[in-house]
Each structure stands twice: as structure tokens, then as C-alpha cells.
Amino acid sequence: MVLCAAVLCAALFAPPSEQHRLIEAGTFHAGEVADTDAGPWLGLFVDGQRYAWRDAVVDVKAVRDDSVDAKDQRTGREVSVRGGGNPLFLVRGGEDLRVAFVDGFPDLELRELRNGDQLKLTLGSQEFLVNVTNPRRHGDADMAGSSLELQSNGVTQLLYSAPENANEPVWEILWAGDLDGDGKLDLYVQLGADSTVSERILFVSTKAASGQLVGEFAVFRTKGN
């Protein structure tokens, strides 16, 4: 069995990569979305029983942040997609991901991850296991000290690990499937070491290094209310 580590806990709110970007539609605090994020993106949309990549034009508008703004302030940013429609997420620098149709597992959307979970997902003839490991908290919802692993074809890859002093993090699978048509699993997950911070990470197979199953495409970090 090969063991490889891809992503450990990153520094919160590190500058995003200029090569690959990831955001969602919605309303966010200052600094989480830039005014320069307006313009063209590639969005993943629900298309009947499947999913599809579509070109999307994003508008970013200054709005009042009710949690921190005075009456006359507008430090928040509202992200919307021109023409309607609400993509699951939006990427920049991801043209190599574009395929005509995207296969996914809709029953896993917003699936909360708990210690001891082992999810078996099959794409074509290839099986993937998504494991949450923490011997000290098996079956517990407390994710402090837990690790997220992906297994397939004799490879076990550590995707993420929360420190023992994590502040009640909540982990979720936001989307799972094959984004780029290569028959391999891609994951969009909400992780993070703190319940007040969301780290939404897109892992894709085409960004995997040698000996890995997936690589980190981008992270979208936001703070709680």
C-alpha cells in the first residue's frame, strides 16, 4: 500500500492562487471575495439528472454586512451569476476540466462526514473509498484530530487532517463525481479546523502528483457570521 500526503491544515486566509480560483454565489464578508472576481467564470450547474459545465458571468456588488457594518457601510460583497441559475461552484483557470457532461453522486451533496465513515463510490470499473479516521472518536461527530483519506487501487492518500485542538469543525461532502471525464473521482468538500471558518476545497484527479489520486485545485475560505 502506498501512503501519500496531499493537504494538511493550511494557514487561514492565505492569498488565493492566481492560476486557479474557486468561489460560490452568495453574500460574503470583506476580503473573502474581491471586486476583480467579477467577469467570466466556469460554473458547475445541475442539468437534469446530471451536471454540466457552463460559462458564467459573475457580478460582484457591495452590500451591507449586517454582522459588522454600521448603517452607512457596505463592506460585504454579493456574488451573483448573470442571467440566473445557481451553480454549485465556480472556477477560474479550469478550462482543462471542461467536458460535455459531468457524472456525479447527488445523494452525497451536503453529506456530513463523521468519524468512522467509509463511503464506497464507483466510477466505471474503478472503486474509491472515502474514509474518516480517528481511533479516539470512532462514530463521534467531533472531528478534532480526524483525518480524511481517499483510497483506490492500492493507494491511500491523506487529503486533510484536523489538529487535536480544533474548535468543533464540521466536515461535509458538497459534491462528488467525475468533473473532467477521466473516470476518476473528484471531490468538493467543506473541511477546516474551526467551526467559525469554512474551507471549501476542490480536489481533482487531473491535478494529482505522482503517486496521488487527486490534487488540490483551489480553496475558498470564508468566516462565519
Please, could you describe this protein's structure?
The chain is an all-beta fold and 225 residues long. The chain has one domain. The chain has strands at 2-5, 21-23, 26-28, 39-47, 50-63, 76-81, 89-92, 103-104, 111-113, 118-123, 126-133, 147-152, 155-161, 171-178, 186-191, 197-204, 215-223. Strand 14 (171-178) and strand 15 (186-191) form a beta hairpin. The protein is globular.
List SSEs in N-to-C order: EEEEEEEEEEEEEEEEE
The number of distinct helices, counting runs of at least 4 residues, comes to 0
Q: Which range best describes the helical content: under 10%, 10-25%, 25-40%, 40-55%, 55-70% or over 70%? A: under 10%
Radius of gyration computed on alpha carbons: 18 Å
Q: What is the overall silhouette? A: globular
Oligomer: single chain
Number of strands: 17
Determine the strand fraction and express it as a percent band.
over 45%
How many distinct domains?
1
- What is the rounded distance between the termini? 43 Å
Helix/strand/pairing class, anyone? mainly beta
- Strand numbers in spatial order across the main sheet: 2-7-4-5-6-3
Question: Largest sheet at a glance?
Answer: 6 strands, antiparallel
* Low-pLDDT sequence parts: 1-17
Overall pLDDT level:
89
